[in-house]
Amino acid sequence: MTDMTRPTRPDLSCDDVREIAASFVLGALDADEAEAVRAHLASCADPHAEMAELGSVLSVLAEAVPVVEPPAELKGRILAAAAADLEARRSVAAPASPEPEAPAPATPVSPPVAGAVPFPTAAERQQRAAARAGTATWLLRIAAVLAIALLGGWNLLLQNQLNAARTYEQSVAAVMDVAGQPGSLTAILTGEGADAPAGLAAVASDGTVRIAMQDLPATTANQVYEAWVIGGDGVPKPLGSFKVGASGIAYFEGGGLPTQEGIVLALTLEPGPGATAPSSTPVSVGKAVAAG
User: Per-residue pLDDT tens for 134-190?
Assistant: First the structure.
């Protein structure tokens, strides 16, 4: 005997299951509908490959999309777009006042069985499917906005890295131009540690110097990097200062250097411009030797 206290389930067709496959995989069906889908899958000869395909897409997306903090204004943009779309739908869907019709004859209604939970009718299932479709549409719109934001941020990151690489390449080329001149000196500037600032320098025969650096921590407030030359007397002589942005790339030109082989070039981080003596340990140092 059938237990009337349990909810009844319809026999879903293969087309019915395919139509709501995405909602089933996403866990968007109610308990009765999900159970009906499981019952169909358990007894159907069709393997319903679409279930496995949809499930595999979800796992790939979960692994492929990095966790990125969305911009603060994204929530406001999404809510504003949702409100505008909802208002537009209401204005279009609002029906005109219908003409009064004669009351339809009453249809006998069977009294409900105590404890029974009827499964939604076909019309109710269509309404729920339409509601889920609307929800899915909004989820897709939100996902699209997030994807655009993520791709835009990734593109900006790559562009910044490319620009930094080009800037450093151009700086090194300028240094090498001097290094190729007769009578020039060259120096490789390095610091302590694997991630320490490093770069190249060249001193021309007329005492001018060009320095190309990378991996320098960005300066803040009034901070500057000061370039120094240390000659045979061992006294650091300031050559000039410069600031560094987030890229860590820097290029410096100065003059008035001695041109003897063995002079030392150094960079220090100073609290402000105008230093006459180093106030801290050099972040990068190199000894100039004859080019070639």
Answer: 555 555 565 665 565 555 565 666 677 778 888 889 999 999 999 999 999 999 999
- Residue 252 structure tokens: 């410096």
Phi then psi dihedrals of residue 247, to 5 deg: -70, -25
Residue with tokens 């490093």: 198
Cα dihedral across residues 237, 239, 241, 242: positive or negative: negative
Could you tell me which of 187, 163, 183 has the C-alpha nearest to residue 175? 187
Structure tokens belonging to residue 82: 């949702």
pTM across the whole model: 0.50
